[in-house]
Amino acid sequence: MKLEKHIPVLLKESIKSLNIKNNGFYIDGTFGQGNHSKLILSKLGNYGKLYAIDCDYKSIKIASSIKNNKIKIIHGSFSNIEKYMKKHNMLGKINGILLDLGISNLQLNNYKRGFSFMKDELLDMRMDNTNGIPLYKILNKININELSLILKKYGEEKFCYRIAKKIIIYRKKKKIRTTFDLLKIISKAIPIKNKFKHYATKSFQALRIFINNELNNIKKLLKSSLSVLSKNGRLSIISFNSLEDRIIKKFMKKYSSKINIPQGLPISEKKIKEINFTKLKILKKIIPSHNEIINNIKSRSAILRIAEKIN
């Protein structure tokens, strides 16, 4: 089967943001089909190294086809970069970390895991389907309050309780197994359809984020980046929804801002310096150009945020 080509978003901008050194060390935490990795490799000298990470074993298979001694392939979650780099004696030595948090065309259209509501497939939704429990099994057991909370928290779905209630009612008669089962339930639960956005978008996003623990993985990665990056190392992350971007923005702001301490407080200069020890410098926020959005509509919600470790 011929795999559908994935069009990477902000490809040139994200690679440029890494400020790649000829013999530097880099991490592509979301290898996917390897578009970013291949471009990074093309800029590395003989002593440079790229650590390509992906939790999807099919992406690892693609990575394994690259014949280049400058790439090290790791099957696992990007949230574990601190553990991986410690194993390779690379803590504090990485010159750049890149993440593209978007779901690829490969996963949407080729893997038959239920990521897309446009095809009738088994409702799995795991990025790494060698671990964990598929979504359809969870939906057939989860209680209404927990399900409603997931839809609200991760999808910002205002009809969360109505959808959760319809799922509970449906599964009493018939087990949920496919994307179209879920699509039919959501359609009946939502009284008013948004003509600019598919009615199932928020629910599918919420359930995917939940089952893959996506937001917690991002938080863990961000915290680990401070010990993984070298001084002047770059952190470049492309996000595709407000939940992801909010976490990234908050993290970069937290570690790049000094606290305004009122005069007269009984606190030493040494303590003030410790409190105001900033670790990051925010460099830029980039969004796709008008032309990129026209050529790739999926890029419209993308935001690339770039920061540099300064301490």
User: Can you say what the CATH homologous superfamily of the largest domain is?
Assistant: Vaccinia Virus protein VP39
Q: What's the main sheet like?
A: 7 strands, mixed
Widest sheet: strand ordering: 3-2-1-4-5-7-6
CATH-defined topology of the largest domain? Rossmann fold
Output the CATH class name of the largest domain. Answer: Alpha Beta
Structural class: alpha/beta
Structure keywords:
2 domains; globular; cytoplasm; 311 residues; alpha/beta; seven-stranded mixed β-sheet; DNA polymerase, domain 1; 42% helix; EC 2.1.1.199; single chain; Rossmann fold
Question: Can you walk me through this structure?
Answer:
By secondary structure, this protein is an alpha/beta fold. It has two domains: 11-106 and 216-309, 3-Layer(aba) Sandwich (Rossmann fold); 129-211, Putative methyltransferase TM0872, insert domain (DNA polymerase, domain 1), CATH 1.10.150. It is 42% helix and 15% strand. Strands 3-2-1-4-5-7-6 form a seven-stranded mixed beta sheet, sandwiched between helices. Helix 7 (144-155) packs across helix 10 (201-211), helix 8 (160-173) crosses helix 9 and helix 11 packs parallel to helix 12. The longest helix has 15 residues, at 214-228. The model has no long low-confidence stretch (mean pLDDT 93). Keywords: Cytoplasm, Methyltransferase, rRNA processing, S-adenosyl-L-methionine, Transferase. One of its GO terms (biological process) is rRNA base methylation. Belongs to the methyltransferase superfamily. RsmH family.
